[in-house]
Structures
1.
Amino acid sequence: MAVDIAPAPPAPAKQAAAPPRRSREALTAWLFILPSLIGFLIFTAGPVVAAGVISLLDWNLFSAPTWAGLRNFARLGPDPTFWSALGNTAYFTLLSVPLTIVVSLLLALLLNQGLRRIAVFRSLLLLPYATITVAVAFVWIWLYIPHDGLVNAVLGWFGISGPAWLISDSWAMPALILMSVWKSFGFGMVVFLAGLQAIPQQLYEAGRVDGTSPWNSFRHITLPMLSPALFFVVVTSVIGSFQVFDQALIMTNGGPGTRTTTLVMYIYRTGFENYDQGYAAAQSLVLFAFIVLITAGQFLFQRRLVHYDN
Amino acid sequence: MSKLSRRGFLQLSGLAGIGVAAAGCSSGPPSGTATWSMWSSSAAEKKVWQDFGTYVEKQLGVRSVATLTPSSGYPTKLDLQLVSGTASLVTALNGTLIPTYAARGAHRPLDDLIAADPDFELDDFYDTSRRISSFNGKTYAIGFDVAPTVMYYNKDLLTKQGIPLPSRTEPMSWATFRELARQLTRPGEQYGFTCAPAIDDLVSWIYCAGGNVMSEDGGRSILGEPEAMQALQFVIDLFVKDKVTPPIKNLVTESSLSNFLQGNVAFMQNGPWQVVNARKAKFDWDIIPFPAGANGSTPRVSGSSFAIPSGVREGAELDLAWKLLKTLTSTGALDIYAKAGRNNPARLSAGSAFQPPPDNLGIVQDILAGKVAGGHAFDVTTNWNQVKQLLGQDLPRTFLGQVSVAEAIKGLTPRLDVLMRQHLDTIRQATARKG
């Protein structure tokens, strides 16, 4: 029996020429991303590549550059100021990041308790983060004045004789860290607050039914559910801390001695005050490598420590 | 109201982007404009430079465009403008940076322009200004101000204490000065002396003791030699041992002027460039020559100048740049500068415009002319920023009593010597380029 097979109807010409819907969406997405992508290539990737090239040159900005090979990197080893600046930056990071996170988390937990006029508190606590560092630094210089400053006056109420904070070998860096924690806790607080408000209440209700204590509820529900936000804040804070510059420049100018000279401050001085662009580029690439390594390490750890819903 | 389609939105965004880019790429003032750069950190300074602009337009008959930048950011902005080829025809330079720029070829020597211009009188400028504006035997800039460091004193405070006012012309000895500072100090209330805890102020004492930061050829540090060490120890002792200075609260904001203006400090070391600010004092004050050490009263003499960037093209552009530089450093322009009380002008013929108060202002010009006491041009290297930074690390700690002068100098000297050798190498390269 012959079977008639009807020929398939030809597809409408218009439909065949038009790109599938998903391709059109992709194209639109790319168009929207394009300005940002161009900006990234020109203002981020471009300078990184340029720094790579400049690090191989001797260049004082005004005369023609000459080839230096890896000489600028070799200069890093015997340069005591570089290592001192790196040590100071690591010290700053190791103290300021955990402190900022603890303060941010505590305040976020407090604000998440359904306080009245919560928006007012939230805005007030976000003010330090929203204020420019220069202004904040000058206020803190005033607060840290050895005899008449507010910080030492408060310590005096408890019978403690405060140090000359910003000119003390031992206390200048802790003073910067304290100011930095105050300046930046607002960012972490907002992220943590958003994370806390996204935790399903059923989890806490189930915990209450099982008789979980508030501490266990925090340990076994809040912290795991907040871990993506925590991870985000840790990564961005560490990167930000390695780039600390403005508050140290304004409050201590790197002193006393080189006690508060940070790596970015040293890079700036090498490149723009000492006209040693090649060496500054080499230093900045080493800083970049440190940040990449530390961030990569954090991403390795997050597989074990960060809990995602899905 | 019509709805904007997605295509229309993208088109408009694209056009706006092109517009912004075009605006950003605009090439600045048209050719033939007299462009110049200057630092300016206050409304009073801005007013002086505006008057300069008006004077330039009147003299040259062309539009004057001044780029004014706060003094702290001026060097960085100038560097970027020089590198990107967008610098003005004439740029102001602090004297300490002239060798730095000259050695790197950022500014052009002016000797050919001076030689070809019979109207220009280089002899009308103080010798020290000419020395500050030169590098490696060539003139790289023309001065607009020059002045020695002097000692300001609070007349009311001395009179109240029953202490006779010091001589207006005869510098006192260091021993007398120290004794006076001690007598005038009442801890926590009143102090004998204030200066900035940095090399810029220490250097005057070092010169007066017969020492220097670097050897005569600039090839090694001589801060460890007895003359310099004696000077350093003397000043640090005023802070740490005698405690005749207001306590240092913060090295960044420490300001001798602000200490002096409080009215409870007898003597302040500073330059006549602070006369304009010291006039705000609510007490009677005056200036006297710097105390004399073993080498006499020979404090640092500082100055600032105008220079022409190397990127200025030969021909009409260079012609305009030279005319502009001459106008900005002419007697008429420097009269405006001095009359406003900014500082002592670099030209002898404009000197009379810098007028009292203070009563004894005339000694500034007498010192420069070698009639009273003396002065020592601020000797700097071609990498002075680096030298200053290195000195800025440990010297301030001596003022705080954290390290001894001997320890600080011992730690600094090897690193200073490296910088001095680099300085000699830079001069050698600059000389070879010239050849």
Note: Residues 109 and 230 of chain A are 13 Å apart (CA to CA).
2.
Amino acid sequence: MSQALEGDRTFADKFPEEARIVRAALLSSFLALVIGAILGIIQTLHRTDVARIIPSTDYYTVLTAHGVFLAISFTTFFLVGLFTWAVVRSLDRPLLNTKITWTWYALMAVGMTMTGVAILAGFVDSIDMSADVLFTFYAPLQAHPMFYAGLAVFIVGSWIAGADFFRTWLAWKREHPDERIPLQTFMVLTTMAMWYIASSAVAASVLIFLLPWSLGLIDQVNPTLTRTLFWFFGHPVVYFWLMPAYLLWYTVLPKIAGGRLFSDPLARVVFVLFLLLSTPVGIHHQYLDPGIAEGFKFISMTNTLFLLLPSLLTAFTVVASVEYGARQRGGSGILGWLTDLPWRKPEFTGMMLAGLMFAAGGFSGMVNAGMNINYMIHNTIWVPGHFHLTVGTAVALTFMAATYWLWPQISNKPIYSRTIGLVQVVVWFIGMALMSNAMHAQGIMGVPRRTAEPEYSGFEYATMFGGFEELNIQIAIGGTLLFVSTILFIGNLLLTMGNPTVSGLADPLPPALSGPADSPKVLDNLRLWVGIALTLVVLAYALPLAAIIQRGGLLGPGVGTYPVWLAPLVDALANATTALVGAVGDASAALVEVVR
Amino acid sequence: MHIHAYEKIWLAASVLLILFLLGSVTYGAVGPGVAMVSDTEPTIDAGALDEDERFSEPRVERVGENEYAAYVVARQFGFQPDPIVVPANSTVTFYITSADVIHGFEVAGTNANTMVVPGEVSEITVRVEEPQEYGLLCNEYCGAGHHVMEGKVNVVSQSAFEERTDGGDGE
């Protein structure tokens, strides 16, 4: 939007009700962050055998809660808050009906509370409820029904949030029939379209299989099928976390650096590529699964590697935009401009360090994606080492750093201490560098992820540079620094909330150097892109899912016993589906052979 | 749409990198003939492993000249047999299944690594060289005792292996 429209009023001045919603969503996100950080430090000290304050059997309760609160709650609440801000700001119009907005917020909060209670009840022996199934909830490990029900409610809430954004955009479109979709809104809409596609599979898995199974309505489920449906969602969800960070890198970071976004059209291309490519890749989490043909795995790898493209393009655009900012500020030389950047601003330094870590995470991600090298590191602590760089730093550190810029815009309150902010983002970077470096190294030694006591009694890991114990110390120190950083962040924010309201904090965003008019109109054709995305999903998943159901049956290999009143229905459904799938499978057998 | 010259170079280099990665994996698999865990084995009834020919008595069996088959069952919280004893300088094919939930089968520090899913049989073939003792662990969370689920793969000399199997469960 143009500067003239924005004037020097902040978002909070122009849209007070929306600003309240954004603040509520961000605060929910940060509550999850604090809980996750407390669980994180318990975990890191336990795993490394520095301090074991809980029995090892409870470690998995901690791990489940850490995963769900940080990966689902922290990220998604921040995202819906940020997206509400981005849509309203870039369309420069209020939401259609904030009652609907508060409804989805309430649904998400209630859903997450249900899931959280089901998990945390695992600590209390007298409550007959637990959900120690980790973030991935692989059947046939079973959680209390409230765990699954809470997840379903949460996802429905996020769907209504997406509808809210789409409806607001449609209303704007009626008012501005000939204008291009503003960039931030475009990013929000493509991300939410991707989310609808991706989350449909996990919703189906939960509602059709896992929830009825946990309620005792069906006896068993097909573990490969539910696992595949989980990963159908489980990989795109990492882009769901990442795309708000990208939105900030594209639209806010260049401004903070003193310049403007390099290219609006290319930013659109990147988001379209994410919409198209992020879903048909989930099988790359299942390279080592029996029951899935090698050819399907290979197709998934091909898609995955092409998914590198939008991230590599982003690396170019973000660095180019920041360089442009530095040169606007008087920077010169091949690398000399780097010294002309605002390194004392926590929002700038935080986002730049996050981007640097994302590059490192990208490289370990390429290793994960290679279906042959994957054998070396699959399910080792290398993998958490990788995603603590991507979601744990690229995303989380960007969110925290951006908050130092965003919070004054949505509350009219200046940040309590920008110095503490700067220390906080640097401590996070150092902590994560230590922790994830050591995790990667231990992973190559074969140390598994997701275990309370990785030291084992019967054998020792082959020693390599550094050794197991030394790496453990690195992990413990790194984890402790991350905890300290989180406390600094939250403390700073709480003190900020206590600051008096002032005016004059507005910091409007400039338009891109190469504006939307330079991009082909077809980029804004969301129907087309969603159509292609769905086609790619069908191409990537129809055959593997058909093969899995044909092999093991809808409800798993082996014969189950169902409650009598349900049996005919379930049997008929299973038979019909198996027959249908069989026909599809047979018809496409030739294609499968080619693929193999 | 205007694309900057540097941007074009970057784009081309990115695509080349991706093609190189794809090519290297394809060569790594097709060239030396490395097989991935796949859907070669039919499903089995996880609830009736004690009636299964291969898994009712988990064991290592000679199946050819220097070729052995190891039938392994993973269940909360251990592997059978334990230790898994195989002779040096041979080719061993592991057939691994689960009696209950999803487990992992990882020979620590090597690339012998697979998921173990109930109802499915994972097949992985490895070449074992010198005698050595390897740690075997479950790398997928499988319940409250997951961290004690460990075992060993002992690669022993041919003569030691034959001595062991003289009892009759060899061939």
Note: Chain B touches chain A through 72 residues (CB under 8 Å).
